Amino acid sequence: MKRITESESVFNQLEQMSTKALLEGINSQDQLVPLAVEKIIPEIEAFIDDCFKRMLKGGRLFYIGAGTSGRLGIVDASECPPTFGVEHGRVIGLIAGGDSAIRKAVEFAEDDPTQGWKDILEHQPNSMDSLIGIAASGTTPYVLGAIKAAKEFGILTAGLSCNPNSPLSTLAQHPLTPVVGPEFLTGSTRMKSGTAQKLVLNMISTSLMIKLGHVKGNRMVDMQLSNEKLVLRGSAMVAEELQIDMDLAQKWLLANGSVRKAIEAYQKQHNNEQL
């Protein structure tokens, strides 16, 4: 396996570069990331379709990783309930070292090959669940151990890494490997590798939630109304769909708790009045 993520940067003497040169260099490298992701769309599609079948039967989606990779999984998982209205626990993010590692690195947590599966067991996994192991290098023991055990348990597995033919890519049923090349700062996989991982996770969770029916048209009709901005956005959706004014739309929205429920309740009452 060639560790591309550890390869020497194409830039050098960074400390001697101007601010503008640093920014232009980073940006030039970042532009390579979506092109790398584009190349693996067929692999992402195959995983989504397999995962969707399981989620239709009540399965959940797990992300597991260490360091930046674990944090990215937690970010994506935590955004699903407010964005799509799904229950907490439908998409679960796990990180080596536990929740304290979200803010502060836990030394050597990623080196335990058994802890990942132990962390998953706390959530009572079943064979309809799916697991994405996230590790830029593709060699993290915490992730590899979890993928191996999950696969033996009957869970659908994917491995998101940035090194081709890595142990993670070999072990997982669905290898997802956007090869972004050397980092601007040699070995700093929180940069291009992390960006690629975030893009892929965005694609997976958003596509799954759309397929599961949590979007209508291009609108987040099941989003949680957790702040004034979202109440206003939801009211505008209801007003546009029902062709009513914003004040009335907001009353129906707040009374019913979501855009979808507000529209359905209004239409039901309106139809009953016409009978």
Identify the strand order in the major beta sheet.
2-1-3-4-5
Under CATH, the topology of the largest domain is which? Rossmann fold
- Compute the number of structural domains: 2
Q: Based on the structure given, which CATH architecture of the largest domain is correct? A: 3-Layer(aba) Sandwich
Order of helices and strands: HHHEHEHEHEHEHHHH
From the spread of the alpha carbons, the general shape counts as globular
Major beta sheet, specifics? 5 strands, parallel
Termini separation comes to 70 Å
* Class of secondary structure makeup: alpha/beta
Total count of strands: 5
The first-level CATH class name of the largest domain = Alpha Beta
Strand content: 5-15%
Mean pLDDT: 96
Tally of alpha and pi helices: 11
What is the CATH H-level superfamily of the largest domain? Glucose-6-phosphate isomerase like protein, domain 1
**Runs with pLDDT <50, length 5+?**
none
* Rg, Å, rounded: 22 Å
Helicity, in percent? Answer: 40-55%
